[in-house]
Amino acid sequence: MTHQKVAKSSKTEELIQLNETYGAHNYHPLPVVLSKGEGVYLYDVDGKKYFDFLSAYSAVNQGHGHPKILKAMIDQAKTLTLTSRAFYNDKLGSFLKKLCEYTGFDMALPMNTGAEAVETALKMSRRWGHMKKGIPDGDQEIIACQENFHGRTSTIISFSTDQDARKGYGPFATGFKIIPFNDPAALKAAITKNTVAFLFEPIQGEAGVNVPSDGYLKAVRKICSDANILMIADEVQTGFCRCGAKFACDLEGVKPDAMCLGKALGGGMMPVSAVVARKDVMSVFTPGSHGSTFGGNPLACVVAIAALEVLDEENLAAKSLELGDYFRKKLSEVKCPKLVKIRGKGLLTGAVFEKGFEAWDTCVELKEHGLLAKQTHGNIIRFAPPLVISKKEIDEALAVIKTVFEKIK
Fold this sequence. Notes:
The protein has 14 helices and 15 strands. It is of the alpha/beta class. Helix 3 packs antiparallel against helix 11, helix 4 runs parallel beside helix 11 and helix 12 runs parallel beside helix 14 (391-405).
């Protein structure tokens, strides 16, 4: 990876050095130190203003510091923040009801991070396969896709195909099969009598906004139903209006058996995640079989309720659909010989450059011009602004992108 030299203030240099000295080097951030966020904008320690076109990997769909979510958080922080699940609290029931009504599922199990939601879904599907289908415990199989990103816990990386996530971390958990994404025939062929679930992203975000062919989700739904296995959609990044509908599966009118949720459920304020599922699936959990001290804490509950209400009140699904189509149309008009494809749904867009192109320097150049985005898989830049962005702001951001992209030779 190349590292373009960028002029940084002494304050920026000092804070970056603190990170590098005292923090594990498990991230490679752009050379910017952020200190403030407001709406679709971020500000660095020197006061420079940037468009946020990453949205913390879709965790900030409602924008930075949304006043309604912020008020809910502050008010609750003054009364009660944490009880653990050893007791009931007065906010959890309302949150679970709101989440189930929003998603259309029967029951929800709250956790904290997206990876925890995926781990919950893995345990749920294995136990369902044992208790409901009679598969011997230890023989359960789960199918996942190549180039998936479901998190970085030791179980999850066991079925990752990203060698950076796997190297040196063996031995790996067993019970997983990996098939190509966007290949219904491969899914059908991989299913055996011990298969309990197919876990997949409706759109692969970390893989570079990899959008499947039309009809893929419907085909997956039929295959899973016919084989009596669980269709589990990881909508941690694609959910909560990011892709132009409440959830990416809604784009084909498909309802999975369960969904993994997170990121924007916390309104950009704090980690909140959950699994939602049918009652007959979720009922496999019994006291002591799964849990989290912070899962379902009252502070998270009120923040998540406000986050869900903002999505509806501001009609962010329709806005994402309209502005996303507009953004990709205008982006496709930019003249850049190295740019080979624009793809995405809603306000989740991938700009794919030719193989071998290193997009890091382009992201640094975008930063210098006041727009923050991040490359993935080396040659792809993902654009995902907060859904509260206006058309005027989209146009201003496009002007920045055009300026930078048209310099690429």
